[in-house]
Batch of 2 targets.
Target 1
Amino acid sequence: MTIPSSETLAAARLPRAFYDRDTATVARELLGCLLVHRVDGEERIGRIVETEAYVGAHDLASHSSKGITKRTRVMFGPPGHAYVYLIYGMHHCLNVVTEGEGQGAAVLLRALEPVRNLPGKTSGPGLLCRAMGIDLRYNGCDLQSDELHICAGSEQEVPSVVERARIGVDYAGAWALQPLRFYIAGNAHVSRK
C-alpha cells in the first residue's frame, strides 16, 4: 500500500454525507478507508479492514436498543461523529455514528492494517483504540476534525468483502445471527476469521 501524504489525506476526507446512509452500507464501504488520528503532532494511520454494523434501536445487539442514555446519546446524534465507549472497564471501542439523527445507528471499527506510526497490535477494537491513542475524550468527536477523521482509500484497492455474524452478541437472540460483520478477505489483521 502506498503511504499517502498529509495533503492527499486532507483532500480525501470522507464527507458527512458518507455517514448519513444505511449503516450496513457504510460498514462495508469503510473497508479500505484510512483512519487518521493526530497525536502530539504525529499522524497515526491505519487502513480499516474489519467493521460491524449496529443498525438502530430495533437491533437488540446495539447499545441504542436500551434507548437514549448518557452513554448512548452520541449514537442518536448527527452522523459522522465518534461514539467511544469503555468495555470491561479497560478497553475503549470506536464507533462511527451513521444515518440521520434519532436512529441510534453506528459502525464499530474492529481492526486496522497499520499504515503509519501505529505502535502495537490493531486486530480487535480495544487494541485498535490503544494503538491509535483513542479513549473516552474522543466520544462525540466530529469526524470532520483535523485531529480524528477517516479518509477514502485508494480506488485501485477495492477489497473482496466477507460477511459474517457479529462477535460477542449472543445475548441478542436472532440479531446475533445477522451477517453484519464485514472484513477484507485474506487480510492478516482481521481480529477473527
Target 2
Amino acid sequence: MAELLSDAQVAEALAGLEGWHGNGKAISRTVKAESFPAGIRLVDAVAEVAESLDHHPDIDIRWTSITFTCATHSKGGVTELDLNLARRINDLVQAMGAR
C-alpha cells in the first residue's frame, strides 16, 4: 500500500507538476477547456485513466472550468498514487488542448 507523504515531500513533487498546488492533505489543479463538451471529454478521458489505475480524483465541473483534486482517502492524505494520477491528468490536459 502507498505511504502517506509529508507536506515537504508533496511540495517537492509539485514543483515538477505544472498547475498543481496543495499540501499533504490533497493536491488540486483547475483547468479551462475550450467548451463545455470539450471539458466533459477531458473528464471522460480522466475517468478511463482513473479506472485503469483503480485510483480516482474528485472532479468539480463548472462550465468550462474543471478542478481535479487527488488524495488517498484510505490514508488520509497524498501518496505516490495521487502524484502518478496528477501526472497522467497533466498528460491528458496537454493532449486535449485544455489549459
